[in-house]
Write a structure and sequence with these properties.
16 helices; mainly alpha; globular
């Protein structure tokens, strides 16, 4: 449902009850749950401290499933911070712990996370091997949430590979499954479908998805989801229509969300990729409205951020925007 603050409060209550009852083995599942909540709240640097309670546990009854899930969450938090090499290492460890599980589908979330990391490390087809493995397993899956997450990840990867029509078909399938899997998953599925529709010029359909996703997010405290919504709505949608005033209005809201979230988590690095998208968007808006100082300030932030090797994916977009700024300033001189 995307009600992560309430989920956190409930999990801390459960943890305290377990500690009071000296049911220490049960705390491991709770620590993993708390780590997942922090992951969904984009408080990525808090995740290792919680998963570490499981990984470093001396309890003899620590299960392979608990260990595998802890490494999965740790890997996902590293991937969110664009630390691809370390993320891949943690996810490989998660896969090893879960390989002997009697539950045949327990590895799918790990494979989806691995597919996302692999997609960031390759820019051409074919699909990452982990994603191909997931697709081979889907015939045995009936859980709508797992199906929806699988097709959502597939769509995201296909979109990155430039396979827009395939990405749209996968997004349609993801949304169809996620409608019965909770409002939060559905909202994220709608965002992916809207992103592909905008790319294909289907702005009216995209607007309907953006509006419905916005209505869903209004009932949640899903900051990462809201960031994705307003970044997409602001730059890609309004920018695609040439409505730069509305684009800037949406992007300013993103800036406020980023500032609030960074203060809450006391860590600005957790939103580095969202920050790059924001600065790129503001830079393009300023370029289109011929506000050279604002464009320069925003794009300088982008150029500094993408100098890190982990963010090589963003360098072409950053260099293109900086080149457009230099051309525009030369023509206006």
């Amino acid at each position: 449902l995307g009600q992560f603050t309430e989920a956190w409060q409930l999990s801390t209550d459960v943890l305290q009850r377990c500690l009071d009852a000296e049911a220490l083995s049960q705390t491991l599942t709770v620590y993993n749950l708390m780590a997942e909540i922090r992951l969904r709240q984009a408080r990525y640097t808090e995740v290792p401290g919680l998963t570490g309670k499981v990984i470093n546990s001396l309890l003899p009854e620590t299960s392979q499933e608990d260990l595998g899930r802890a490494y999965l969450l740790w890997g996902q938090s590293l991937a969110a911070l664009a630390d691809w090499h370390r993320a891949a290492s943690k996810l490989a460890t998660a896969e090893r712990h879960l390989s002997s599980s009697a539950q045949p589908l327990i590895q799918i979330p790990v494979l989806l996370a691995q597919a996302t990391v692999q997609a960031q490390q390759q820019v051409t087809a074919p699909l990452p091997m982990a994603m191909q493995t997931v697709l081979a397993k889907l015939e045995t899956v009936s859980d709508p949430l797992l199906l929806g997450q699988s097709y959502l990840t597939l769509s995201q990867i296909q979109f990155r590979l430039g396979q827009a029509e395939l990405a749209l078909a996968a997004a349609e399938t993801a949304v169809a499954h996620l409608r019965s899997a909770g409002a939060n998953g559905l909202a994220h599925g709608l965002l992916q479908r809207a992103a592909v529709q905008i790319y294909l010029g289907q702005f009216q359909k995209a607007l309907a998805d953006l509006q419905l996703a916005g209505d869903l997010f209004d009932g949640m405290d899903d900051v990462p989801g809201q960031l994705k919504l307003y970044l997409l709505w602001g730059y890609e949608y309004h920018g695609g229509l040439g409505d730069w005033r509305q684009a800037r209005r949406r992007l300013v809201r993103v800036g406020k969300l980023l500032t609030t979230q960074a203060k809450q988590a006391k860590d600005e690095s957790m939103v580095v990729q969202e920050g790059i998208r924001l600065w790129l968007g503001l830079g393009h808006v300023a370029l289109q409205t011929k506000r050279w100082p604002q464009a320069t300030a925003s794009l300088q932030k982008v150029m500094t951020a993408v100098s890190h090797q982990r963010l090589v994916w963003w360098q072409p977009a950053a260099n293109y925007a900086w080149g457009m700024l230099l051309l525009a300033r030369a023509e206006s001189a």
